């Protein structure tokens, strides 16, 4: 309960800018002196907690925000979890139409690639499935 018996307001996790990912594993991520348990989406408007827990849960709806912010994105990295899982070619079409290259890899490789591209001021977005082990 909040003040005066009011219910607490739970907000979606959101950090309002793109930042490097400092660490991953143990089911979450560390960035900007904070930690987040669960998967992440990094787009031009910031870093968001992201619902999918497995690669198979990455639906078109789960990626909708990437397409909505497509003006600021050239590359979408998909961190698929513990291992590389290819993103189906047919599902890449809406991204290609907006000039976005999609590349799927393990979450560890995606985090490292994201950090390099972000450090080079590249127009990158990423989604990362949380992993337990690093």
Automatic annotation (TrEMBL):
Q: Where are the transmembrane segments?
A: none
> CDD domains from the entry?
Mth938-like
Where does the source fall among the domains of life? Bacteria
Q: Output the InterPro entries linked to this UniProt entry.
A: MTH938-like_sf, NDUFAF3/AAMDC
The protein's matches in Gene3D superfamilies, at most eight in alphabetical order, are given as: MTH938-like
Q: Which Pfam families match?
A: DUF498
Q: What is this protein called?
A: Mth938-like domain-containing protein
């Amino acid at each position: 309960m909040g003040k005066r018996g009011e219910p607490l307001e739970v907000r979606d996790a959101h950090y309002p800018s793109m930042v490097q990912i400092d660490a991953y594993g143990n089911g979450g991520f560390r960035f900007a002196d904070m930690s987040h348990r669960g998967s992440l989406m990094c787009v031009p408007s910031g870093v968001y907690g992201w619902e999918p827990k497995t690669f198979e849960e990455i639906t078109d709806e789960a990626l909708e925000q990437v397409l909505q912010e497509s003006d600021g994105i050239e590359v979408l990295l998909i961190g698929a979890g513990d291992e590389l899982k290819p993103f189906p070619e047919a599902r890449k079409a809406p991204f290609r139409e907006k000039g976005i290259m999609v590349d799927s890899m393990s979450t560890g490789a995606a985090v490292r690639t994201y950090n390099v591209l972000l450090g080079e001021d590249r127009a990158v977005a990423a989604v990362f499935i949380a992993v337990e082990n690093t």
